[in-house]
Design a protein that fits this description.
The protein is built from 15 helices and seven strands. By secondary structure, it is α/β, with parallel strands linked by helices. It folds into three domains: 3-55; 61-194 and 272-298, no CATH class; 199-263, no CATH class. The chain has a seven-stranded mixed β-sheet with strand order 1-2-5-4-3-6-7, sandwiched between helices. The longest helix has 16 residues, at 40-55. 31% of the residues are buried.
């Protein structure tokens, strides 16, 4: 069987983007269904060809991106859709905030969780997301952006476009991990909005920096972070000091207002972690494998 014949045979396996169909599965099915031994290279080429036929060519779809965004804007009037190119007209950034999300903003919690994840398509790159919750605790995606890399410029660009669509609100708060570019970008564009840290990521930093008594450290840190009174907070911080004084000093240097609920300058509600954005990222795991055109449409 030739590669193009194997490709036709495998095409149906990729109709659903959530289907995981590996090269080893192709080899196994070809052997079981047709009694044909296919080497790894041929099976891989047939998979790539089938994916291209079903989902489009990754390179060609970049060329169609401008047309797609133009039509998306025309059919979603009021959306913020921006495409940034390099000096030699190559792709750099794209930002999408649909009008439906922008309209919902005033009816959601004023807490915006931002996060970045990596795309798995041929050209890769980070996908930046911002999300919040409605009054019922349901996740509301606010915007998506694809950038060349997670750096100071890309995050500042992201927050600039975010402000264009969502502006600011009273008691607004950003929640993120401690990525320096997020912190710089948010503070530069939203000088008046505090940036709080995800306690799960902060706990990961603590585990990396301090190796002993991690179970006790975790218990006291999480309890202190979620404490509703200064008295309760101080109790757990004193207990933490008994376990490891250096951890207590480390958290003090970061700033209690960055991670402790009782010291937060604005209400964090239940957003002590960046789970809102990470849950969104987990839902779109399979979508991250698509070429940019079809990925944006799926999002």
């Amino acid at each position: 069987m030739q590669p193009h014949q194997s490709c036709r045979y495998n095409k149906s396996k990729f109709t659903n983007i959530k289907t995981t169909y590996k090269v080893a599965d192709i080899k196994c099915d070809m052997k079981n269904d047709h009694n044909i031994n296919v080497n790894y290279n041929k099976a891989w080429r047939s998979k790539e060809k089938a994916l291209e036929n079903m989902r489009g060519n990754a390179t060609a779809l970049y060329a169609e991106l401008y047309t797609y965004l133009f039509m998306l804007h025309n059919t979603n009037v009021g959306s913020i859709i921006e495409l940034q190119l390099t000096a030699n007209s190559c792709f750099m950034y794209v930002f999408i905030a649909l009008h439906a999300s922008i309209k919902s903003w005033n009816y959601c919690l004023p807490v915006v969780v931002v996060d970045g994840t990596f795309l798995k398509s041929a050209y890769g790159g980070p996908l930046l997301v911002a999300a919040t919750q409605d009054a019922g605790g349901r996740i509301v995606p606010l915007d998506f952006a694809v950038v060349d890399s997670e750096n100071d410029l890309s995050w500042e660009w992201f927050f600039t476009k975010f402000r264009k669509g969502y502006r600011g609100r009273e008691d607004m708060l950003f929640v993120s991990d401690r990525h320096e570019s997020i912190i710089k970008g948010a503070s530069k564009v939203y000088l008046e909005v505090p940036n709080a840290f995800c306690i799960f990521h902060l706990l990961g930093n603590i585990k990396t920096k301090f190796k002993k008594n991690l179970k006790r450290i975790k218990e006291e840190f999480v309890s202190a972070a979620n404490a509703y009174s200064v008295k309760k907070f101080n109790y757990h911080m004193n207990e933490l000091e008994k376990v490891n004084k250096r951890v207590q000093l480390y958290l003090q240097e970061i700033g209690y207002e960055k991670w402790a609920k009782v010291y937060s300058t604005n209400n964090r509600y239940s957003n002590m972690t960046s789970n809102v954005a990470e849950s969104l990222n987990s839902v779109i795991t399979s979508i991250r494998e698509l070429p940019i055109y079809t990925m944006l449409e799926s999002l």
